[in-house]
Amino acid sequence: MFKKLTACLLALSVLFSLAACGQKDTGAKSNAGSDASSSGAAASGQSSQPQEPAGTDKLVVYSTVSEELAAAIVKEFEAQYGVSVDIVTASVGDLLARIDSERENPQADVLWGCSLSSMMAADETLFTNYVSENDSALYEDYQNKLGYFTAYGLAVRCLLVNTNLIGDIEITGYNSLLNPELKGKIAHVDPSASSSGYGHLCNQLYVMGSGDPENGWDYVTSFAENLDGKLLSSSSAVWKGVQDGEYTVGLTYEEVSLESLRSGAPVKIVYPEEGTFVEPTGASIIANCANEVNAKRFLDFIISHDIQEMQSMYFTLRGTRSDLSFSDTFVDTADIKVADIDTTVTSANKTKWLDQFKDIFTSFE
User: Fold this and answer.
1) What's the CA gap between 365 and 363, in Å, rounded?
2) Of 267, 85, 233, which Cα lies nearest the Cα of 164?
3) Of the chain's two ends, which shows fewer C-beta atoms within 10 Å, N or C?
């Protein structure tokens, strides 16, 4: 199977036969050494076809997922289920606001690409509970405990550095961003507009506050001053701005940073030496959506073994299943200092912290 998959991917088609894979027993072991314990479709990680009819042949997805990965996954989903998928891409802040404004007449079925902190801070009545048949194959920490959040990937916060512009400046983590030589040369997205931006704010507050986020605001104040009034409106503008030479360094996340690195851009990735916030990113079904059966199928699909293996082996997003292989593109998690951050606290304080950051940032404009 994987020879066929590899050949197809190298041909840039990203096609493989999920139907054929559904007939085989993977017998996969987790990379932590535990055996997959389920049987049948659950053991192989394959999504079995629901017994009930789909009702429609459509699915509308609000997405923040990278274009390349989203296109590959959607193409396979459409081929397997005969469903036409319409993707609408925007920042998670804009999408959550849109879902809220459409609550009486939902125009989409799935929100795909929202961090756990942002989802926990959102109005839960906007989403409907659904626990995927493949949820038990995820690491326990990433299983669906909210009832409406299916974790398909990990958002690993990092810094992206333009190697043509950085010169002799050493970038090792957040402390490095206070260097006066970087003033106005740092790409950062508005934390209120992006899960990526809010994740970095949380990361800074915890690690620069020695574990107490309330002690991290002095650092955030100094950091905001070094932004020199520049705050971007989307997370994509951060990594694009760095790779295109508009900024020397950007606060972003691993998936898009690895894409930029693999494209041959003059960049390098730095995981903050003070600690890195690693947080699940997920998908949720929008309450009262028009295509709920297809939405459930989609959530099953994105955490099926083959899709998770595809994104971890041939793309740049770490999957959440416990039975995956990873390409050499990824740094071993043992070599990343992972910050101890409580997402219950980050979600409960989101409005307060965003307001506080805004007050600080605007004081330097």
Assistant:
1) 6
2) 267
3) C
